[in-house]
Amino acid sequence: KEKHKILHQLLQNSTSPVDL
Amino acid sequence: SDGDPLPTVSMEDLDHLAQGVSKSHLETCQYLGAELQQTSWQNFLQDEVKSYQSKPAEVMWQLCAVKITEAIQYVVEFAKRIDGFMDLCQNDQIVLLKAGSLEVVLVRMCRLFDSQKNTVYFDGKFAGPDVFRALGCDDLVSAVFDFSRGMCSLRLTEDELALFSASVLLSADRSWLQEKLQVEKLQQKTQLALQHVLQKNQREEGALNKLRCKVSALRSLVIRHSEKLSAFRALHPDTVRTLFPPLYKELFGA
Predict the structure, then answer these.
(1) Three-class SS string for B171-215?
(2) Which of A10, B33, B57, B141 has the fewest Cβ atoms within 10 Å of its own Cβ atom?
(3) Residue of B nearest to A2 (CA)
(4) What digits encode the pLDDT tens for the residues B109-145?
(5) What letter does residue B156 receive in the DSSP assignment?
(6) Number of other CB atoms surrounding residue B154 within 10 Å
């Protein structure tokens, strides 16, 4: 999990950090 | 396949799936067709090209890593909005994105590609392969441009592009999948929907086969990207460690 911390976060976020 | 029958799906199911994937694609495609028209397909001027070419390799690599990472964030959002993707176990979501997100970026690139001028939208204007010379990987750059030109020549609609992207992302043959069968079912359904849309759009018989050929081209491009990154990292380990986007490093093992 630690190895893919950011992907995990992006998958769990209900909204994306990018402005869609 | 392990011999399991294809999932039973009706025409209505396929239409519904196609509409959903297409909506997800349009919501997350980073640049809408209309926006691209407004950029009026402006090419970089010769001085601007020279300025990119005279950048140190580290600066150009970092710029490209940032642009790729931005595009990948939209692909992650696309994946999340594909029906069934978030029902997969988290390991498999990660495996599919790690293996497929750059492939989808490359597929999406044909939307930003001008075949006649052999240029692609990059950093605000349209750039030919010479803009990327400072990267020191002309062969990879020209292979990416060739791929995009080939994709453009298929003249896919946004619906077709969306379903093809989803099918690439849901590849059930990726290593380390834990619930391969689940992914296989999703991919089969997506491919049926793609086939259904291609037929509805009265595409020639070989259209699906042409797309299948693109899958192997994509895999080869991604492998070549990894090789180039490894070579770059060997020369500039500190640049990669301190200046490259963390998501890029996570995905490509840098």
Answers:
(1) CCCCCCCCCHHHHHHHHHHHHHHHHHHHHHCCCCCCHHHHHHHHH
(2) B33
(3) B250
(4) 999 999 999 999 999 999 999 999 999 999 999 999 9
(5) -
(6) 15
Amino acid B4: pLDDT: 55
Question: Does B5 have pLDDT greater than 70?
Answer: no
* Residue B144 in tokens: 């990416």
With b for 16 or more beta-carbon neighbours within 10 A and e for fewer, the B77-103 pattern comes to bbbbbbebbeebeeebbbbbbbbbbbb
| d(CA A20, nearest CA chain B) in Å | 7
The reported pLDDT for the residue numbered B7 is 61
Q: What is the pLDDT of residue B6?
A: 61
Q: Find the closest chain A residue to B85 by CA distance.
A: A11
Average pLDDT over residues B99-114: 96
> Under a CB-based contact definition with an 8 Å cutoff, are residues B168 and B103 in contact?
yes
Among B27, B28, B73, select the one facing A17 at the smallest CB separation. B73
Q: What's the rounded Cα separation, in Å, for the pair A5 and B93?
A: 13
> Which residue bears the tokens 């990059």?
B122
- Tell me how many residue pairs between chain A and chain B have CB atoms under 8 A apart: 41
CB contact under 8 A, A8 and B97: no
Residue B158 in contact with residue B33, Cβ under 8 Å? yes
Question: Does residue B161 carry a pLDDT above 70?
Answer: yes
